[in-house]
Amino acid sequence: MSKQYEFKASILPYLLVLPQMVIVFVFFFWPAGQAVLQSFYLQDPFGGKMIFVGFQNYSKLLADPDYWQSFSVSTAFAVCITLGAMAISLFLAIQANKKIRFASFYKTMLIWPYAVSTLVAGVIWLFMFNPNVGVIAYVLKHTFHVDWQYLLNFNQAFLLLTLAATWKQLAYNFVFFLAGLQSVPATLIEAAEIDGAKSGTRFWKIIFPLLSPTTFYLLVMNLVYGFFETFPIVHSITQGAPGKSTAILVYKVWRDGVINLDLGSSAAQSVILMLLVIMLTVFQFRFIERRVTY
Amino acid sequence: MFPHIMLWIGIVIILFPIYFIFSASSHTSAEIQAAPMPLNIGPHLIENYRQALFKGTQNMGTPVLTMLKNSLIMALGISVGKIVISLMAAFAIVFFKFPLRNFCFWSIFITLMLPVEVRIMPTYKVVADLGLLNTYAGLILPMIVSATAVFLFRQFFMSIPREIAEASQIDGATPMQFFRYILAPMTRTPIAAMFVIQFIYGWNQYLWPLLITTKPEFYTLLIGINRMMSGADVQIEWQIAMATTLLAMLPPVIVVVLMQKQFIAGMTETEK
Fold first, then answer.
1. Degrees (nearest 5) of the Cα angle A93, A99, A101?
2. Helices (H), B59-129
3. B18·A124 Cβ contact <8 A
4. pLDDT one-digit tens code per residue, B33-57
5. Domain CATH number, residue B95
6. Residue A229, min C-alpha distance to chain B (Å)
7. What is the least distance, in Å, from the CA of B142 to any CA of chain A?
8. pLDDT digits 0-9 by tens, B52-104
């Protein structure tokens, strides 16, 4: 970096970063600091009397089986979405990357759902599987004689949430896998073909290793999505039901803070989640930086 | 033949659910409640969309047009605001040497992937303290924190040969002239890409508006959908809710389809 030409100015760079820094401090560091502070206090929701309780919010949280239940269901949820969405998207991207007719039509058809919001995905699947009016629910009940009551049955609720969240994530992964596949040099694959490698071998020995940066990136992004960005799906489909069994971590933060007004606990949960995301970010960032310089 | 069949299966998986809601938006409430609803396109299409656009449902009287306006303001505010402040910050970080550069860099980058979901309550408190509940500023500002755009522009700026900056300086241009007349035009493609991504990101925000908009005149479309669907099953006017859902999908889908090329470039460049 030192040999690179750089402008010399004393105030201008500060003026340039100022807006971004103000936003970051007011809407990230300040709230994050408040969350850390609040997580050491007990506050009654109506008066605002604050009592310092040290790590009590954290220890209570970590001793709470509900929290660990929420943690494990979030993990299972994120892993299922990640595996499902990545496998299906990779498969479709491989098909769309072949030299076939209408390839660009197929690509457009599989890319546009990126624009569908997580909430809309939730609402669509809720509508299809609603036990009273849903068409699929009707077929399940009357053709397959399934006792479809996802608000009373954890497995059904989990399955429905996973389907909706996976469906929503397909286009995102498809875009990245397709770009990754297009950057694999065709000459490499032709060479392997001439050497007699079968299509399975070509995929696992050449394409898949070359795709590993994309796969790694998507792995992190899908886990982040599954863990933290699926609130709208849970909020629209199950609202944590049956019981609290599908209340994933971000849903629990929201409910404990907004509905139950347990601000100390909600703050402690926020702090834990932020640490989790920051760890993932740093991890990802180190990886990316390494790839940029080499 | 195999790839065609598989791709069609993929497309059907994607489109089938959307056909369902389109069909639902063309029937009456009674037809949907008397499950199973008919799967054709019924005769009430225009009437349902007219009600959605201009009246809303009975339990939530905000028309789609109002919410469309709010969603548009939020999405444009987030995308344009983020692009402007990110361009400036990335320009400073890449092209200037100043003592606090590393500090600024890391303060910004720590927010790279931080979804609003995890900092929701503390941010709510700050925004409430600033008196920004039920305002467009309150909807927009906390959403332009994350560093994705700074990151993309930084990557792009670092790929530009520094000799260009040096040459402009030798020719007597100020850094801001360099930014305005050389750098900004060169960055047109990444800016377009970022616009698509941030527009969709902004349009699809849900938890944040859910929290800070309590007045119906500030509801965004997604909040409206949520309000239409809350209440007992019998009261839900599914046909209007589904029409609203389809309308809420349209603008971001149009943006993605029209700007597909820039969008893909932007998505995959961020990764590099």
1. 100
2. 64-95, 101-109, 120-129
3. yes
4. 887 888 888 888 888 898 888 888 8
5. 1.10.3720.10
6. 7
7. 5
8. 888 888 777 789 999 999 999 999 999 999 999 999 999 999 999 888 888 99
Question: Which residue in this structure is represented by tokens 């809601």?
Answer: B21
User: Which residues of chain A have a pLDDT value below 50?
Assistant: 1-2, 292-294
Q: Which domain holds residue A111?
A: 57-293
Number of domains, chain A: 1
Contacts with B, A 143-202, CB within 8 Å? 167, 170-171, 175-176, 178-179
Burial label, B61 (beta-carbon count in 10 A; 0-12, 13-18, 19+): exposed
Give the CATH number, domain containing residue A282. Answer: 1.10.3720.10
Q: Are strands A41-43 and A50-52 parallel, antiparallel or unpaired?
A: antiparallel
Of the partner residues B150, B162, B256, the one whose CB lies closest to the CB of residue A5: B162
Residue A24 lies in a domain: no
B35/A250 Cβ within 8 A:
no
CB-nearest to B225 from A123, A130, A250 is: A123
Rounded to whole angstroms, how far apart are CA atoms A220 and A207?
20
The predicted structure's pLDDT at residue B11 = 93
User: How many domains does chain B contain in total?
Assistant: 1
Q: DSSP string covering A39-99, please?
A: TTEEE-TTT--EEE-TTHHHHHHHT-HHHHHHHHHHHHHHHHHHHHHHHHHHHHHHHHTSS
The pTM score is: 0.89
Within a domain: residue A189?
A: yes
